[in-house]
Specification:
By secondary structure, this protein is an alpha+beta fold. A hairpin with a 2-residue loop joins strand 10 and strand 11.
Length: about 375
């Protein structure tokens, strides 16, 4: 008899998340658990099938193999990678204990130890030039630190925290519980010391026994040259204070770059648009254009067309990691005169007459293409 598809067994689709797979498994395990279905012998087989499916789909590596090859990925190895039943990896087995007992399975609790503090986020707005060349800014962040008066112990000066008599300093207590599998020992967080393992009899007045205080701390942050909008900088150990002697978290600075009045950016390239007159475009000229380093000279050749892009080498944004800079691209915009006096109009008419054509060759070619596409005269 061929095996059913594991996704079908759990009632989920192939795109189901890990949480959806776990939720489906728990639902099916409750439904077919042998101790809940003593009058239904077929339930035990269903239960084993559900557990076997979960053993595979709860393991990313084995799930990937199954998605590629199906049951053939585990042929000859006892199904589900050779574990079968509850599985050597303990995934489904431990989830069943969590499901029925709401905690650990009594195989030894985790001792409370040092815990790293939470990370913090700070949004910083900088100018276009600061993003290009870097800057060092001083910022002020609110965060939790160890209380200076009690050095983070929570106990008043001259006193100390005492070991919790209920959990003997472990932060956890064991509770015996009768289950369908027999008498089990369930490990839980101590409700007297709340998992800390110690109790403060004389709390520090400054922090009220918490061992922590809320402060506003000034920090200097160095922004490297070449950062872009959305860049994220990590400042180690400048986050919230750790717990039970653990290290502080980190501070993440998110960069937001203000728009520039003249420049836009594409990667490490800077782009700007420079207007020139009809005469400059026709006869050529040498003009001044702005760059991040100040004004520079740029040659405009005779007959330059509007939209022409000229390059200024190494006038762009410095590379964030490495030497060198991008280029600046100057897009020329030819301005057409909107108001002409009589003298200007006369001169232009003479120019048109001297050219011998009312329409230049490029315009003729364009109108020919229009005629070919749309027809007509």
């Amino acid at each position: 008899m061929s095996k059913r598809d594991y996704y079908e067994v759990l009632g989920v689709n192939k795109n189901a998340s890990d949480d959806e797979v776990k939720k489906a498994f728990r639902k099916m395990a409750r439904k077919y658990h042998p101790d809940v279905n003593r009058d239904k012998p077929e339930a035990e087989a269903k239960f084993k099938e559900v557990n076997e499916a979960y053993e595979v789909l709860s393991n990313p590596e084995r799930r990937g193999q199954y998605d590629q090859m199906g049951h053939a990925a585990f042929d000859g190895s006892g199904g589900a990678g050779g574990f079968g039943g509850f599985g050597g990896g303990g995934g489904g087995f431990n989830d069943i204990f969590d499901m029925f007992f709401g905690g650990q399975s009594g195989f030894g609790g985790r001792q409370p130890g040092p815990e790293k503090g939470s990370d913090l986020r700070y949004d910083m707005e900088i100018s276009f030039e600061q993003a290009a060349f870097g800057v060092e800014n001083e910022i002020q962040i609110p965060r939790t630190e160890d209380c200076k008066k009690c050095s983070g112990s929570g106990a008043a000066p001259g006193t100390h925290a005492e070991t919790c008599g209920q959990c003997k300093g472990t932060g956890q207590v064991q509770v015996a519980q009768n289950t369908p599998f027999g008498r089990m020992i369930n490990t839980r967080t101590c409700d007297r010391c709340h998992g800390e393992g110690k109790i403060v009899q004389s709390p520090c007045k400054e922090c009220r026994g918490t061992g922590k205080s809320r402060v506003k701390r000034k920090i200097k942050v160095k922004i490297p040259a070449g950062v872009d909008n959305g860049s994220r900088l990590r400042v180690t150990h400048e986050g919230e204070a750790g717990m039970r002697g653990g290290p502080p978290g980190d501070l993440y600075v998110y960069i937001f770059v203000k728009q520039h009045k003249l420049f836009t950016r594409e990667g490490n390239e800077v782009i700007c648009e420079v207007p020139i007159s009809f005469v400059q475009a026709t006869l050529g000229d040498e003009i001044e254009v702005p760059t991040l380093d100040g004004k520079v000279k740029l040659k405009i050749s005779e007959g330059t067309q509007s939209g022409t892009v000229l390059r200024l080498k190494d006038k762009g944004i410095p590379h964030l990691r490495g030497n060198g800079r991008g280029d600046q691209h100057v897009r020329v915009k030819v301005l057409t005169p909107q108001k002409l006096n009589d003298k200007q109009r006369e001169l232009l008419q003479e120019f048109a007459k001297a050219s011998g054509e009312n329409i230049n060759p490029e315009q003729k070619n364009f109108f020919k293409k229009v005629k070919d596409i749309f027809g007509g005269v």
